[in-house]
Amino acid sequence: MRTLILPDIHTKHGKAQQIIEKHPDVDEVVCLGDYFDNFGDSGQSNMETAIWLKNFLKKENHVALLGNHEFNYAFNRMIYGCSGYTKEKRELINDVLTIEDWKKLKPYYMAQGWYLTHAGISRRLLLHMFPPLQNSSFTRDDFGKIIEKHLKLFLLTGSSLLFEAGRSRNGKNDTGGITWCHFPDEFGPIKGIKQIFGHTRQKEPTWYKNTENLCLDTGLNHYAIIEDGKVSTITYKE
Q: What range does the domain containing 221 cover?
């Protein structure tokens, strides 16, 4: 089993497509979110990225996760202050992506025993949300159930700790949720849970303190492949 993982794209859909085409032998492709907004971008580049994402979502075994930038466009209102957001982009992106397209984006995905989210989830946040976890083990089933429950809560109320920003990103909480957690200062590992995420730009793919928790966002200069449960990071080359 081979899983190709692409971190934050931020309108670099041409580069993302080149990486995908370099690896036609993989069994699945997972994008970690943040498809839109980049420095010096335009409404046109975001619309073209939306067209690319729409086609990506049509393909079998292609998975797209929700990033913090998608929330502003998917729910048609300004929720949190993501850099680069404009109403013009929102209109152009939503001319391409339908409600059914947005529904295909997932808050998390599990690949070969690794939990993939946009920004990672910290044990500190889970303990704040669910204090009983302090004295009990945390299982993979718990992880999935908590995320699904809080996505429904967010869709109903527009609010959930699991999707809010932490203080490092001008939020009010000690640590951000799975679309906002700032690495490494807001992150903390969860025993028994292996994670791969993006969101916080690094110079190189960075493992958290020798644990099985990887921040992969380097401006799409690196990506990863999981093969039979083992993660390899790869430097992008044209």
A: 2-235
What digits encode the pLDDT tens for the residues 99-119?
A: 999 999 998 999 999 999 999
Distance CA 97, CA 49 (A): 10
Distance CA 110, CA 72 (A): 25
Spatial distance between the Cα atoms of 48 and 218, rounded to a whole number of angstroms? 22
- Helices (H) and strands (E) counted in the chain, each on its own, are 7, 10
Are 229 and 15 in contact, with CB atoms under 8 Å apart? no
Integer Cα distance of 180 and 198 in angstroms: 10
**Sheet containing 62-64, strands listed edge to edge, beginning at the edge strand earlier in sequence:** 62-64, 28-31, 2-6, 222-227, 230-235
Give dist(CA 165, CA 199) in Å, integer.
Answer: 12
What predicted TM-score, i.e. pTM, was given to this entire model?
Answer: 0.93
- CATH number assigned to the domain comprising residue 90: 3.60.21.10
Please state the domain count of the chain: 1
Give the mean pLDDT of 117-140. Answer: 74
Nearest-angstrom CA–CA distance, 21 and 160: 37
